[in-house]
Amino acid sequence: MPPVYVLQPVNTLLPNFLVRTDRRQAEKDADVAKWNQISNLLETSIHKAAISACGKGRLSKERKHFYTMSVTEHEVQTGIFGSDAPQRHCLVFVREMHGLGKDVYSDAMATRYKDTVVVDGQ
After folding, report:
1. H helices present in the chain, as ranges
2. What's the CA dihedral at 50, 53, 57, 60 to 10 degrees?
3. Which of 17, 46, 109, 121 could pair covalently with 31 via S-S, beta carbons 3.0-4.6 A apart?
4. Is the Cα torsion angle 12, 18, 24, 26 positive or negative in sign?
5. Considering only CA atoms, which of 115, 104, 118 is closest in space to residue 69?
C-alpha cells in the first residue's frame, strides 16, 4: 500500500502560528518565520518538479503552468475568469509600485509585490 498523507492545519506543527496575543508574540514570530521557510521550500520543490516533468514530456505545459502560477494568478483565474458573474462579486485594484529598482532581485520581500524571476540574465 502506498503511503498516505493527510494535510493538517499549520498550527498542528507550529502551535503559535495563529496566536493573537502580545504575550506570545516572540513565539508567534518564530513559528511564522519557520512556516515561511517550509512554505518556500514546498513551493520551490513543486515548481522544480513540474518544470522537470514537463521537460521530460511527463506533464503538459498547461499542467506545468498550473503548478507554477502565482497564488494571485490562480485567484484571478478562479474568481474572475471561472465565475458566471464576476461583475457581481469581483473588485480589482491596480497599483503602481515606486522605488523597486534593479536591486529588487536581492530583496527577499520584493517577491511579494513583483515577479522577480530571472530569465536569460534579465
Report:
1. 10-13, 25-55, 61-68, 71-76
2. -20
3. 17
4. positive
5. 115
Q: Which DSSP letter does residue 90 get?
A: -
Residue with cell 478562479: 78
The amino acid sitting at 2 is P
Q: Which residue has the higher pLDDT, 59 or 94?
A: 59
**N residues, the chain:** 122
Distance between CA 51 and CA 53 in Å, rounded? 6
Residue 37: partners with Cβ closer than 8 Å, 6 or more residues away:
none
**16 near 28, Cβ under 8 Å?**
yes
> 44: which residues sit within 8 A by CB, 6+ positions away?
none
19-52, pLDDT tens digit by residue? 998 899 999 999 999 999 999 999 999 999 999 9
- The vertex-100 CA angle with 96 and 101, nearest 5°, equals 130
